[in-house]
Design brief:
Length: 455
């Protein structure tokens, strides 16, 4: 029984839910779990970058090599296994809040409002986690929604539970339900580092886009754009805004501080930062194709983000994670969704619903912010929108998912790719989804392994 101990971060329900103050601390613990480098501080940012066509591993042996080469295995202790553990750990906290919060006594009307807010935050976190699990372990919804995703967990789990994998369709049904319920409970006010209703709506616009539910994606995104308390940062402030917490464009970001920054030298800023100039690790660099794409418009402000990497490539380092003012590249808040993405979600949905006027204005807002002199297509195509997504959302957790959900192929071209790098990868390739960790398979009678990884 000396092995059967509770994690030091956990509290029994009698303490975690004894009053609203304790509930507030439990809610903060839920957010803290998303800071981990196996979740948002590294994994969910690095995977879609190096598995795509705009970023790569700089040299053999670097930490991102297996991701870049599509070399995941069920036995690997890094990669998907760590993400699985962390996602379900945080999910258990969210479910504990939802199971216990209604019984917590309140003494004022303000506490009743706060109870609804905390319940909404737990629902939104549960939706986001299931969405991430579906993207990592399941096929894209629009490709094969009947395929298996990950276990769909809406109750607190015990070590004896053995849940089976749900279909991607079932997971998305729960995701949409949880986000919609959360929207009705959450505050409309700014809520730095935590969910408000606009954050839930913004992420729901992304979910609808992944579902090819384009009318709903457009409507939800336009609601955030037209009615939310956010605005695009200016062209002049674009570069400096990347190191500013809670700037006008960030709708939901995960807070990291010098006291609690998780993963230390495993965060996305450190792994991408060159050793010679930032004391980073220098594993992730841009591809030649991406450099050329941005450089094709010399007046695009995003050209200012390129810097020299450890191999001497003058543009190999991409300064998307510069660190907070006065700190190293290790320490960054993680913007899960920004207003610019919401514009691009709306623009893509408008293209797919043949709404050329909306597509032009929505795409144009992002394009002209980056380059005021650019010509915006009168009737944008899907390629126009996805090209802008490549440039605007680079190294923020999107490119590979954008390719897969749109039935596009990962093509690795240009001068710096490592020998033997896979190319021509489509969403029919079994390597595009992660294996269920082998340690989970060993202790389960219900889990089914993904094709291509054995049983």
């Amino acid at each position: 029984d000396f092995l059967d101990v509770s994690p030091s971060q956990s509290l029994p329900p009698t303490e975690a839910f004894k009053d609203m103050t304790a509930v507030g601390q439990t809610v903060l613990g839920m957010y803290s779990g998303m800071q981990d480098d196996s979740y948002y501080s590294f994994f969910m940012m690095a995977v879609p970058a190096v598995k795509g066509d705009d970023f790569q591993t700089r040299q053999p042996g670097k930490r991102t090599q297996n991701l870049y080469m599509f070399n995941e295995t069920p036995e690997a202790s890094n990669g998907g296994a760590g993400f699985w553990d962390q996602a379900y750990y945080v999910l258990n906290i969210a479910n504990a809040i939802l199971e216990n919060i209604d019984a917590v006594e309140t003494t004022t009307a303000a506490e009743e409002v706060l109870k609804a807010q905390y319940k909404g935050e737990a629902l939104a976190i549960r939706a986001l986690i299931h969405f991430d699990l579906a993207r990592i372990y399941g096929k894209p919804y629009g490709v094969d929604q009947s395929s298996l995703g990950a276990p769909l967990i809406t109750t607190v789990q015990t070590p004896d539970d053995d849940p089976a994998r749900a279909t991607v369709a079932a997971m998305y049904t729960q995701i949409v339900q949880d986000f919609n319920q959360a929207i009705n409970l959450l505050t409309d006010e700014l809520n730095d580092g935590q969910f408000n209703s606009w954050a839930a709506k913004a992420l729901l616009s992304r979910v609808y886009l992944y579902m090819e539910n384009n009318a709903e994606a457009l409507s939800m995104a336009k609601d955030v754009i037209n009615n939310g308390p956010y605005s695009l940062v200016s062209n002049a402030n674009y570069v400096t805004s990347l190191s500013e917490d809670f700037n006008s464009e960030r709708i939901f970001e995960i807070v990291n501080t010098g006291a609690d920054n998780p993963g230390s030298r495993e965060t996305i800023g450190y792994v991408a930062g060159p050793q010679f100039s930032t004391s980073g690790y220098g594993a992730i660099i841009t591809t030649q194709v991406f450099e050329d794409l941005v450089a094709a418009e010399p007046n695009d402000v995003r050209n200012l983000l390129f810097g020299e990497d450890d191999s001497g490539n003058p543009k190999g380092y991409y300064r998307k994670w510069p660190g907070k003012p006065g700190s190293s590249v290790i320490l960054n808040n993680i913007p899960v969704i920004r207003l610019s993405e919401v514009y691009l979600n709306a623009a893509e949905a408008a293209v797919k619903t043949n709404n050329a006027s909306d597509a032009n204005s929505l795409l144009g807002a992002v394009m002209t912010r980056a380059n005021p002199g650019v010509t915006v297509p009168a009737s944008p195509t899907l390629d126009d929108v996805l090209t802008e997504r490549r440039k605007e959302m680079a190294l923020e957790g999107h490119r590979f998912f954008d390719l897969m959900r749109n039935n596009m192929i990962v093509v690795r071209e240009g001068g710096r790719h490592l020998v033997g790098v896979p190319t021509g990868i489509s969403n029919s390739d079994t390597r595009t989804i992660f294996p269920i960790p082998q340690k989970e398979m060993r202790k389960s009678n219900s889990l089914i392994q993904n094709p291509g990884y054995g049983q």
